[in-house]
Fold this protein.
Amino acid sequence: MEHTVIFTTEDNKTATVTVPTNTMLADAAHIAGIDIGQPCGGQGRCGRCAVQVTDGNVRRRSTLRLSPADVEQGYALACQTVVEGDVSIYVPPQEKIERRLTTDRVVAEVTVPADYDYDLAQSIRRVHLQLTPPTMEDQIDDWSRLQTAFRLQANMQNVNCSLHLLQTMGETLRAGEWQVTAVIERDIDNPDKPIRLIELYPGYVDEYSPLWGCAIDIGTTTVSLWLVDLISGQVKAQVAEYNGQIARGEDVISRIIFAGKNGGGQEMRQRVLDTINDLLETACKRVKAKPEDVMKATVAGNSTMIHLLLGIPAGSIRLSPFITAVNHPPLMTAKDVGINIHHEGTVDCLPGVASYVGADITAGVLSSGLERAENVTLFIDIGTNGETVLGNRDWLVTCACSAGPAFEGAGVMNGMRATQGAIEEVWISNDTLEPTYRVIGGGKPKGICGSGLISLLSEAFLTGVIDKAGNVNLTAGSSRVREGTHGGEYVVAWGAETESGEDIVMSRVDIDNLLRAKAAIYAGFTVLADTVGIPLETTDKVLVGGSFGKYINVEKAVQIGLLPDMDWPRFEFLGNTSVKGAYYALLDWRKRERITEIAKRMTYVELSADNSFYEAFTSALFLPHTDLSKFPSVEAALHKA
């Protein structure tokens, strides 16, 4: 039977849709154009898609996260409730992750590699050609005439082109009066492979004008894009944005589950494409270019992100024996992938290693220099997926664990990216428990970014606002410590101080998310070191990657047990190593080949098959750890406090 579902939102807007019996409320809302967030991927685990049934009949498959009083008032989980008759639904205000494009605060300084030579290293080239016009005595066809010019003037023997270029070639040649500028892609490592013609422009394009490419890192939480002039090698614009897929899953498993549902895979693909294409548009505007001027994109990301981008089913990644559909995707054109660079432009998805160690890590190993290190070095990528690599130039082992998006500002009540208005560091008075904080860009705070959360958690622990298990001390004797909607919480900034006019707090739920994130990352690299029999304290260096890594306070990160307790000079914070590795691969075919070699060299350790990981994770769920002897500097700080 068909039923009418009427949705009403917080601002009294309504949408009506007709659906069959047993249609999920979340699906009905999607058809009606109403966005209901499903951060757990529609598994019914998070309870954050709750809506209120104000009239009509539904059937609740699950009431997890709903109290009997909630059900009595008509609340239901949109992802676990089906329509059984005409029904009216009120959609409460949805949790929103605001669009916060990067500002100058997070723009990395990028030095063009000293060995970059456009003529030798770049696969994308611009070639000027002068053709002989046809005459009654010389009636060679346009395509053959162009191929002859390539052969005689550019020493390019084997050039292919698309049907679209054949369709427009004659007009272009004549518009340029037989002078043209070609953009081609060559396989420098394989000169016998055909050269691909990407675009043909009438006339001569200034040889010093930019030839655009872009490097993209698809993070589970954040997507970053660098716009690059391939001739000079310079990065001309950097932008980043939350991955639009977050609304359908905060972690890779939730997204895989959502993508496996009816139409979910296509929605996930479109969401990340929308994010990338919006960033591309923004970056191009900054340099007064157009997206179609970009001729190549290199893409890094974990294995799930690459699968979802390409519309490849990712279900096998989360099911034993945890196998990807592809680790080394072939080169593709932008029109096939859906990225809005030049439609004939190349999209190069970099190679990964396994289900949970993808191209973001192989690119990161290249850009961090780990694959050339003489001594044993630890590389940690602090993000939604806590990937770790241990090794040197002779051997590399790697593992991954799900850390969640807390350190990237998502999944935390007042979390945000490290942009204008974010609290980036906090100090709490040991005597009064009053906070002092620093805001990026000055002015009133909007929220707290990853570095601020680490600082806040450390300060709260050392001053006794929270105990080692993360419990908020409600008897601390300060108005900053109070009972909130989600349990005990600490007020960092009162509403009168903030841009929104609402208090900025750290809640017990936030603390739990942060503890799980840091425990997963710490357990990952300790178990990896134990697996290969390398004492962690003997490692020469600890390289920390991740979009906010370069802003982490080492002391605070050690105090919460996120990083091992080592001498500070041994830590090196590198920022977003994934997008930097993609940038290197975009510039230089030799470095692109090295990423492939890195992927082949890396030995993957599956932590889910190792009981020691769960034990290590459980031990690390405390501040800084159940075994305080592992953190002598923190033990000393506690005694001093």
